[in-house]
Amino acid sequence: MIDAGAVAEAAEVDLFDRRQIEEYTAELVEWTGGIDVAVVAIRGEDGDAAQLTAVRTVAERMAAQGSGIIVIMSIADYERDYRELIEHAADHGVAVLPLFCAPARGQRHSISIDRPAHS
Asked: What share of the chain is helix, strand, coil (3-state, %, to 5)?
């Protein structure tokens, strides 16, 4: 992949530690020049807030470069926060794609992604 101009890296980062997230993304941007695609996944019931923090951090880096795709592997109770993040990120050319969304107990929801209009 490097010969073709692409680099992929998998890393285990503590999503409960914002400083660690920020340091890792800064190092990655310095090493590669930018983040084009990120997959953020976390296990556990208390992980949604940490995952949201990680997605926001990566989205900020991508917005600065004007593009990117973030795939979220699971979300549950933060639909409103994710909707706001998705809308804000789209304005900066970043697509946030939630997968495997599990609604909160007794609720049903879905999240749709609309592409921002470009002139």
From this structure: 40, 10, 45
Pairing of the two strands 37-40 and 68-72: parallel
- Tokens representing 31? 């090493």
Sign (positive/negative) of CA torsion 6, 119, 55, 65? positive
**Of 18, 14, 15, 34, whose CA–CA distance to 26 is shortest?**
34
Residue 18 CB neighbours (<10 A)? 14
Q: Report which DSSP code applies to 99.
A: -
Of the candidates 40, 24, 114, the one whose C-alpha atom is nearest the C-alpha of residue 72 is: 40
Would you give per-residue pLDDT tens digits along the chain (119 residues)? 456 666 677 778 888 888 998 999 898 888 888 888 888 877 666 677 788 888 888 899 999 989 999 888 765 656 677 778 888 888 888 988 777 555 555 554 444 444 444 43
| pTM of the complete model | 0.69
